[in-house]
Every structure is written in structure tokens, then in C-alpha cells.
Amino acid sequence: MLQRIPDRVDPWRLAEEGKTLEGRIKLDSLPRLAPLLAFADGEAAFVLRFGRDKRNRPILGLRVTTELVLQCQRCLDSMVQEVDSAIMLALVQGDMEAEQLPEELEPLLSEDGEYLDIAELIEDELLLGIPSSPRHKEQNCNRRADAKAHRLPEAEQKEDNPFAILAGLYVGKNDH
Q1: Which residues pair with 140 in a beta bridge?
Q2: Going by C-beta distance under 8 Å and a sequence separation of 6 or more, which residues neighbour residue 161?
Q3: Fewer Cβ atoms within 10 Å of its own Cβ: the N or the C terminal residue of the chain?
Q4: Selected residue with higher pLDDT from 28 and 5
């Protein structure tokens, strides 16, 4: 494991050398991810393996693991979303090259000699691990327990229904 991971690397050179980079990145240092978290404390562990596949394409494998603290959209309490993501990427220089990749490889557009921002790559993968509407499992959600405790008797619910008058108007109109 490297002591200090560089912010930007030459993925083409690292693929040629078959290098592996391992490290941790603070969640609060990821500008697009941090605002989506209930608490941005913590770190994500990652492993980046560079190399070449059977067809001699430059590839990299990325694995990211962490626990993200999100806000449940049902009860608004904190919840933990585990992320354990692995992806295989092929370095490509254009759309035609990307279209020719097998299904197991995702394209990573990068010109030869262009640097790769490791933090940005990790952040992209973590963002993909966040559900569009994070929620506890129903049995663990505080909202469900609160709703059952505060449920009104059925008679009281009907009286408070603001649409009850409209329902009466609609029924009366059909009688004519």
C-alpha cells in the first residue's frame, strides 16, 4: 500500500507497468458527494489495479468500499448505506473504441498522456451507490412506527378529509 496516493496519475503508464494503488479517501473531501450525506465523516477504502486484458487493451479495476450516512426520505433520520462497488474500466480514446468493448468493460475516455483524477473516479462510483430516494427498510424505519402510533380512528379521519365536500358534490351531480 502506498503511503501517499497522488491526486492525478497517468493511467496509460500505470497500465503498462501493471501497478496497483490502494488507499483511503476522506468523504468530506469529495465536493459532489459530501453535500448528499447526513454526515460526511469517514473514509472510503479503494483499490485501483492497472493492467492489460487479453486483447492488450489498457484496463483498470476499481473497488470502493465504505459506509455512507444518508438521510432516510421516509422518516428523515440517519441511515447507513453500505457501498461495496467493483468495476472494470477500459481506457479508450474515442466513441468508436468505446462501442467495441465487451459488456464486462466500461469505457473510460482518456487520451494518451492525459491524467486521471483518482478522487473524481472514486466519487463517481460512490455517487452511483446512492439510491435516488434513500430509505430504511420498512421494518426499521421510524416513520412507520410513528405513523402507527399516531393513527386516528377511521371516523376522525373521514371528518378531517378536505375532499369529503367535493365527493358529496360529485355524488349530487350524478343524481340529476
Answers
A1: none
A2: none
A3: C
A4: 28
